[in-house]
Amino acid sequence: MTSNGPVRSAFAVPAESYDRMIGRFLPTLAPAFADAAGITGGMRVLDVGCGPGGLTGELVRRVGADRVAAVDPSGPFVEACRQRLPEVDVRQGVAETLPFADGTFDAALASLVVGFMTDPVAGLREMARVTAPGGTVAACFWDYDRMPSIQLFWAAAARIDPSAGDDRARPGGAAGELAALLREAGLRDVEPGEVRAGAGYADAEDWWSAFTLGVGPVGAYYKALPPERRNALRAECLALLGRADGAFTLEATAWFARGVVGAGPGR
Description:
By secondary structure, the chain is an alpha/beta fold.
C-alpha cells in the first residue's frame, strides 16, 4: 500500500491482517470514493496502491474486470488481489513508475496511498501520464483527526511515551493538501471534498487486536515495543476507546480531491 521505503515493510503483511485493520472500512469507503471520482460503466480504470483489492473489487463491480488494472508494491497484497480478482490485471510496482503506457486509462484512483508515496507529486504525475486527456485522477487519504482508530492509538502512545512520534503528518492528511498536490502535479479543474466510511467491531478486544498484527505505522510501532510497554499501550487504548462490551461502529472521514488530465506535453 505504500512506496515509502521506511514503512514499506509494515505493509508486507498477510492480506488478512490488513483486512482486519483498514480493510474493515473499505466496504463503505470504496463506493463513496468511486462515486466521488465519477466512476461509471464503460470506463478503463487503474487502482494505484490497490492493497488486497478493497477498492479494486468495487471498480470491477462498476466497469467489469477486463476494464480494471491494479498496482501495489506489497507482494502479499498483490498476490491476494490476484487471488480475489483473478480476471484483473494486477501488477507489483510503485506509483512513481507505473508499469503502464501513456493514456491507457480513463481514470486513475489512489485510495489511502498518497501519504505513503515516496514522492506524492511524482506519483500523481505518473497517474496523469497513464490517464487519457480529459480523464480523471482522484485520491483520498484519511483525515487523521477524524479517523478515530488511528487517532486513539497515537493518543494512547503519547500517554505512555511523550516522545512517541504519531506518524500522522503525512502528505494529503490535512485540509486542502490533496488538492494542492494534484495541482502541483499538473491536474486541471481540481475539486476537493470529503468521503466518509464506517467499520464495525464485535467488541473492544476485536478493535484492539488489529493493532497487534504489524500493519502500517501503528503496527510497526506496536511490534517495536517491549512486552510491558505493549500491555500499557493496550490498557491506554482501551481506556480511551471507552466502549463497554458489545458490538459498535466507528465512523471515519477521508479528504478527497479529483482533477482532469490536460492534453499535450506535460498535460
